[in-house]
Design a protein that fits this description.
By secondary structure, this protein is of the alpha/beta class. It has eleven helices and 14 strands. Strand 8 and strand 9 form a beta hairpin. The mean pLDDT is 95.
């Protein structure tokens, strides 16, 4: 069976292990600096396997050596932004965490593909790519699946239809300037702007952009973890099963959409080697302007990286 190592066994990391084990995709190793925590969560999850009839093996460790020969490495480790903390402090702290996680795991698994989830997402993908020296195909960030899923959920609720009938596409940096493509999104083939009145559609776009903040405000502490972790499982499945699923991911841009040298959310085909190719939509002038605005924000965030 394939092996996936998850660095960071907090709510997102442990929930990702849960979704992955449920799909019986791989054996899973949870790694965290907190003594006993990854071991306890892994054992609890392992003991659930007979109940659901799955044979994934789950182990926990405080030692990176346990990640040896991983096919996939998922990095969720990092600190959330705390009250009074500047964005720069968050970036600097998480850069050190992601850098170490990348160096240590690469030492034990030189052929691994990386899925990054630590925030600020696009910047942390850049840290892993530059630290590892890997080709861009092997470092992808999880953001767009989550943003698109939020939009799909809101559209389905508004129209009273199955989420399976709703296809939504969100480009851009993982933040308030993300670009929900309402023109390309549809319900059973009918474009959103033809099925929803402008005010309802605008409200859904706004709620999608602020989706993470809405959950943070409700929880009071911590942030979303069920949906981000499910998105990791979907990406992992497409890579490990060579499904060539096209999903929005943060990818290192090499000229696509007119962008270079930043990670940016775009529709990406994921297969056995990681990124297979970027899918380019034809954008109108308004959409191009939104993409440029989002890219400028990502560049600003990445410019301060202390690498």
């Amino acid at each position: 069976m394939a092996k996936i190592s998850i660095i960071g066994a907090g709510m997102t990391g442990a929930t990702a292990a849960h979704w992955l084990a449920e799909r019986e995709l791989a054996d899973i190793t949870l790694v965290d600096v907190v003594e006993g925590m990854p071991q306890g969560k892994a054992l609890d999850l392992l003991e659930a396997m007979p109940i659901i009839g799955k044979d994934s093996y789950i182990a926990g460790s405080n030692d990176y050596a346990a990640t040896e020969e991983s096919d996939l490495v998922v990095i969720t480790a990092g600190i959330p932004r705390k009250p009074g903390m500047s964005r720069e402090d968050l970036v600097n702290t998480n850069t050190e965490i992601v850098k170490k996680a990348t160096e240590q795991t690469l030492k034990y698994s030189p052929n691994a593909i990386y899925i990054i989830l630590t925030n600020p997402l696009d910047s942390m993908c850049y840290v892993t790519l530059k630290t590892s020296g890997l080709p861009r195909e092997r470092v992808v960030g999880q953001a767009g699946i989550l943003d698109s899923a939020r939009m799909r959920a809101f559209v389905a609720m508004e129209l009273g239809v199955s989420v399976e009938n709703v296809a939504c596409y969100v480009l851009g940096g993982h933040g308030d300037s993300m670009v929900p493509l309402t023109r390309h999104s549809n319900v059973a083939g009918v474009p959103l702007d033809k099925i929803l009145p402008p005010d309802k559609l605008a409200a859904i776009v706004d709620r999608t952009r602020k989706g993470g903040g809405e959950i943070v405000a409700l929880l009071k502490q911590g942030s979303a973890f069920y949906a981000p972790a499910a998105a990791i499982a979907q990406m992992a499945e497409s890579i490990l099963k060579d499904k060539n699923l096209i999903v929005p991911c943060s990818i290192y841009m090499q000229g696509e959409y007119g962008l270079k040298d930043i990670f940016f959310g775009v529709p990406a085909q994921l297969g056995a080697g990681g990124l297979v190719k970027v899918i380019e939509y034809e954008l109108n002038n308004e959409e191009k302007a939104m993409v440029e605005k989002s890219a400028a924000e990502v560049r600003e965030s990445s410019a301060g990286l202390k690498m």
